[in-house]
Amino acid sequence: MSTKLEYVQQLEQQIATAQEQLGNLKAEKEEALLAAQHEEIENLENHLDDAHVNLKSISDAAEDAWHELKDSVENLMHTITDSLKSLTGSSDDSSDS
Q: Are 61 and 69 in contact (CB under 8 A)?
């Protein structure tokens, strides 16, 4: 067998091995991404539950007490907005009020 042919075969094997490793890395990345998104979605659901509770508290609060709850709810809504932006890949800040 010629040296050139051996070299080509060796190079083909190295390329195939590298492609297989790259495929494995892509699969691991996708799994990690999905796990991170799943965790972020669970956090978002918890934040939304908290927002509903706080909304009820504001509705039921005395006139002078609701201002204290307002700051808490605004911070929570900012967290929810950031989580949604993270999940959707959006970096638009136009939704801030």
A: yes
Per-residue exposure over 42-75, b if at least 16 CB sit within 10 Å of its own CB, e if not = eebeebeeebeebeeebeeeeeeeeeebeeebee
**Exposed / middle / buried, residue 85 (Cβ in 10 Å: 0-12, 13-18, 19+):** middle
DSSP code per residue over 43-72:
HHHHHHHHHHHHHHHHHHS-TTTHHHHHHH
d(CA 5, CA 34) in angstroms, rounded, equals 43
pTM: 0.54
58-81 pLDDT tens trace: 778 777 677 777 778 888 888 888
